[in-house]
Specification:
- By secondary structure, this protein is of the alpha+beta class.
- It has one domain.
- 14% of the residues lie in helices and 31% in strands.
- It is built from three helices and six strands, in the order H-H-E-H-E-E-E-E-E.
- It has a four-stranded antiparallel sheet. Strands 2-3 form a two-stranded antiparallel ribbon.
- Strand 5 and strand 6 form a beta hairpin.
- It is globular and about 30 Å long.
- The protein starts with a helix and ends in a 12-residue tail after the last strand.
């Protein structure tokens, strides 16, 4: 996902950092419908990030507010996550315990 983030205008240093970063790149990745409180994006990237929330300890949370995806690369016993939110155009990146249930995006080479 770092490659896409940089293609959309995020700097290399920002793309490799953690936390919320890269606004307005997240707006380019978000779908045009489905986000709460007017948080829809432009989807100009074609990624169509939907606000599916996440699964944790048997429950589902933040549907409509956040979209969370696993990255293909691991980080020790964790894996890298990306998230989008309804309230701004930033993109979240962190290494997260695999106990969480995030969406996976399959891409054909």
């Amino acid at each position: 996902l770092s490659t896409m983030e940089m293609a959309l205008g995020m700097s290399a240093s920002e793309a490799s950092s953690t936390g919320w970063r890269g606004s307005p790149v997240g707006d380019y990745m978000k779908s045009t419908t489905g986000w709460n409180n007017g948080g829809n994006g432009s989807n100009s990237s074609g990624f169509t990030g939907l606000p599916g929330g996440y699964r944790y300890s048997g429950g589902f949370y933040d549907i409509g507010n956040f979209g969370d995806w696993w990255s293909a690369s691991g980080s020790g016993s964790n894996s890298w996550e990306r998230a989008l939110n309804y309230y701004d155009g930033s993109v979240y990146r962190d290494d997260v315990n695999r106990y969480y249930g995030f969406s996976a995006r399959c891409v054909r080479d």
